[in-house]
Amino acid sequence: MSANMGSMRILIKGGKVVNDDVTQEADVYIENGIIQQVGKELMIPGGAKVIDASGKLVMPGGIDTCVHLQQTFMNASIQDDFYSGTKAALMGGTTMVLALALPEQHCSLLDAYEQCRALADAKACCDYALHVGVTWWGPKVRNEMETLVREHGVNSFQMYMAYKDMMMLRDSELYQTLQTCKDIGAIARVHAENGELVAESAKEALDLGISGPEGIEISRPEELESEATHRAVTIANRARCPIYLVNVSSMSAGDMIAAAKMQGKVVHAETTVAHAVLNGMQYYHQDWSHAAAHVIVPPLRLDPNTPGYLMGLLGNDTLSVVASEHRPFSIKQRALGKEDFTKIPHGVPGVQDRMSVIWERGVVTGKMDENRFVAVTSSNAAKIYNLYPRKGRIIPGADADVVVWDPDATRTISVSTQVQGGDFNLYEGQRCHGVPLVTISRGRLVCENGVFMCAEGSGKFYPQRTFPDYLYKKMVQREKAQVYKGVARDPYSGDVAKVANTMKKELGLGPIDGETPTKGGLSASRVHQGVRDLHESSFSLSGSQVDDHIPKRSSARILAPPGGRSSGIW
């Protein structure tokens, strides 16, 4: 079935072709899984399936840069495997997903990658690639990162500054990881939150009797995100490694990224649909299951202006990409934390609704135009992950990942009609403009007018190349231009001071340089220094005291008592 579809000839007629930089009226001819021609009055062979796109937009298929499928997280199994997850993606207009292979702490990165590949190859319906999590650090991890890049088509790794005792890296470990990413030409994805303070804040909230989902928002305030964001950017700058920040959730973190870009640092960032659309008041809902269904980290923010602000940052290129961060759980699974918010599994669904919701909240509201929409949902991701222009652009020679998009049609989002997993939809009842009428994945017609036509396992792993120009071109040039050099000078030829063994001296381990030993092993210079050492008491419990040799007087007449002499009133 997939072989027949791959050899289909498809002509998309009468639409407006939308790329990230230009919109033009053109027809698109597809054959052998590749876009063959783009233009007017094309000369094509017979037997092609014609799709009428009059009044519609023809866009590159979406690229969802972070989905979590068919794995266990926080003691709960994610409610989508690679079949249902990629099917939901295609139904929503996304034609490629980047999934995360997350090894347990102290476990092999290669093993996690192999397990994820085996699961995905058997079930995926669309092209996919893998990030690999770096949950601990050591020589073995470095070697496996190099192997994954060199032999297995991986070019991105994800590090966490949060999740203490689970997968958090200390600053020195993060620095070494980023240096390794720079050396091998990989993309360094960093989740920025102050993990130490998150852990302390969670304990404090629980001690105060706060056990519900609101504890997520209380224990992870945005200052912990903005502080970690600044620290991550600083560490990356010192390591001379481009950095890609994930799950940006707050205005202060967004401002930090904007400032870093203004300073010329190579920083890119993604936010999620949930953070760009919803606010943290959801955690204070009276229904526990409703509040728990919104648990994501970093949490949704209380300030109602935050979603609009983040959408604006997507529009002005401060934030480069919007992902779904798709990790659906059921209400029963979330109930693992019914008495302790720290045990509620983190994650929300969204792979199916990402494109429509961003169109409604971004394009319809005027925060971005259709070209910027293509950039944040597809083209920028393709550039960052070194897929461009094979992905993320409609030009001859590119992969035929194409969506025919109706900007005027509407659909109402509901958990009852969704394909993605989970028993809750964050956007329940929301009416969205922007509907994918036709989805084409590598030349295969996989979805048309809501009808899905794709075989399980027909998707392919997409090996990724290292050193993407979009990130590394500037860095490589800076390495050449900004090499640290020592100063050429005559060597110092004068005297050099002698350094006493101060450690031995302070510990009282014996005489130094011929000094006369005194009681207790301390040197004479240590005891008789002119100023009394007030830390050393002269009082002894042994009976004899240091001033026993001074004759005692039976009485002493006070001539001038403290406060002055008394007059004869008494």
UniProtKB/TrEMBL annotation:
SUPFAM superfamilies: Composite domain of metallo-dependent hydrolases, Metallo-dependent hydrolases. GO terms for cellular component: cytosol. InterPro entries: Amidohydro-rel, Hydantoinase/dihydroPyrase, Metal-dep_hydrolase_composite, Metal_Hydrolase, Metallo-dep_Hydrolases_sf. It comes from the Eukaryota. Gene3D superfamilies: Metal-dependent hydrolases, Urease, subunit C, domain 1. Residues 57-207, 363-444 form the Amidohydrolase-related domain. One of its GO terms (molecular function) is hydrolase activity, acting on carbon-nitrogen (but not peptide) bonds, in cyclic amides. NCBIfam families: D-hydantoinase (TIGR02033). Belongs to the metallo-dependent hydrolases superfamily. Hydantoinase/dihydropyrimidinase family. This is Dihydropyrimidinase-related protein 5-like. It comes from Xyrichtys novacula.
